[in-house]
Write a structure and sequence with these properties.
Blueprint: E1 2-7, H1 10-18, E2 27-31, E3 45-47, E4 59-61, E5 81-85, H2 87-90, H3 100-106, E6 111-113, H4 117-134, E7 137-142, E8 145-149, H5 159-174, E9 178-183, H6 186-196, E10 201-203, H7 209-213, H8 226-234, H9 240-245, H10 247-251, H11 255-265, E11 280-290, H12 293-314, E12 317-327, E13 333-338, H13 345-359, E14 367-378, H14 390-410
Parallel strand pairs: 2-6, 9-10
Antiparallel strand pairs: 1-8, 1-9, 2-5, 3-4, 7-8, 11-14, 12-13, 12-14
Helix pairs in contact: 12-13
Bound molecules: magnesium ion.
Length: 421
Amino acid sequence: MKIHIDLDCFFVSAQRTIDPDLIGKAVGVGGRGDQYIFSHEKSNQELLLNNSGSFVGSFFHRYAGDDLNQFIDADGRVRGILTTASYEARAYGINTGMSIHEALIRCPQLIIKGPNMQLYHRLSHELHQFLQERIPLIEQASIDEFYGDLEGWISDEEVPAFIDHLRHEIKRHLNLPVSIGAANSKHIAKLATESAKPFGCYTVVDDNVSSFVHSIPVQKFPGIGSAMQRKCAQYHLQTLGDLLRAKSLIFSWGPYAQSLYDRISGNDLGELTVSAPRKSIGISRTFDPITNRDEIRRRISILSRHLAYAITKLEVNPTTFSLSLHYLHHPKSHSAISESRLFNEQRFRQLCRELFAKTDLHISGAITHLGISAGSFSVHSRRTLSLIDYEDDAKARAFDQKSRTIRDKYGCDALKWGSEL
Ligand SMILES: [Mg+2]
């Protein structure tokens, strides 16, 4: 069987491991667009490149305190949203994604904590290692979610006892509550975890798949997006059971609907992907609308400096680069450039500027989000890279190595480009 392991209200549970006073209370972890990176002062970013780094951004602001104050602006407005709510908070109707402002109206005694990404990454990594020691095949699906394949390792009859034991073992060793679902298919196992929450286990044997999914609302199934939900609503398909009974209708909707049907019925078992190598790295920030293009270019310089530092640390050579913009009143815009050269920060910064010129389709439109990323890593071989610029690039790269040493020691803000100041 396959199992799905999900940490219960992970960010809150993680805070509780270092602050036991939070246990049993209504607690929310807040998040807001990180503006600090664009500050003209030193911005105190930290870089995380470990395993779970591929599921969330790589740069985080290191918060000085972690109370409600960091979500209150100078004008007294409470900003930000909840990224996690404890079960005690959920009892007040508070959910993940709700604004902190609204959550505090529903539950004035709600304790708000700032994010501590370093802690979450460390605990996620520890849980990954813990699971790898106990289960031969483990896939990390997100910072707080794992799949395991027990086939040939634990017999189906022993699975319920095994996962129940595992749940208590994780609680004992890492002091973190998890819920675990088991089934022959990955998708049904994930659904089973939802029924087990919080701190529970649930096993669905093949014969019971249709009765298990029978009354689950359509929108609860991962992969049923808003377009598919609307289509289901049109045909009065409210639950997964309704959907399974309408096989010929679903199959007439095309290949995506067919594959969805197979996942819901448990016929598609889903293979585990174990530690896929990193394919790209990016950085992005959302902010209040800005129309001044000089300020946007300054921000792009800052993001490119941070990303270049991360790329130098990863010791990869990206050959495709992309930039995306969100406008307040226009559709998003995105463009990419491929270039096989030896990576260096100076050239990268220039590329980002070129990309911006290409991407900025509404030059007087207000921009609310910037993202840049780099991918298609090549081996650092002279042969695959352009020889024309190799000498210059090699010199610039040697300079990057020196800057990296300085930044490792004093932070990414220790060296800035003149245009940022
Ligand atoms: Mg979770």
